[in-house]
Design goal:
Helix content is about 40%, strand content about 25%. By secondary structure, the chain is α+β, with helices and mostly antiparallel strands. The strands form two sheets. A five-stranded mixed β-sheet has the order 2-4-5-7-6, covered by helices on one side. The protein has a two-stranded antiparallel sheet with strand order 1-3.
Amino acid sequence: EGVFTPSGEIFEGLLRQVEGLSRLIEDLRVLSLNENGHLDIQKVSVRLAEELTPVLQAYTAPLIAKGFQLHSELDATLQVECDPVRIRQALMGLLENALQHANPGNLRVRLSQADGLCQLSVQDEGPGIESTLTDAIFEAFRRGDPSRSRKSGGSGLGLAVVKAIAQAHGGNAVCLARGEGSVFMMAWPNGAQTAE
């Protein structure tokens, strides 16, 4: 009659579904706000490495379970002008993308500054993305391998959200081919200086 016996497994499954729907709704909200020029960011000066470390810690176990070795190269002295909540959201999108689509192996997360731009990147070891698709990979619902269906998971919005957050910070997001793999990078102007 539609009634089920409660169990931990059923509740965990329901919780995962609710969390997935919550992420989907937030992703759609961010894209909609960005498209209409209303994605507000709350810039503050922070040591961004300190803000990103808990995200990396949260993703370590799932990455290891999928066969990744996480390498963190965060400049701990870098003082960054940004909305740390949104940048954490973008990093989660980049890590989710790697979990869903990258080949197991080394995964490098870098935070650095060059030429006045703060750069946050995730580099994988494959399968790589065709150069003709690198510009379009940050569009909503775009996949690097069009033959890959929803079986690999994800809403198809994660990288579009990363780009929206980068643009809201006055920057952009790009995908670069590196050997057999790819580098997904967001960069934005940084008015803060490196801390001593």
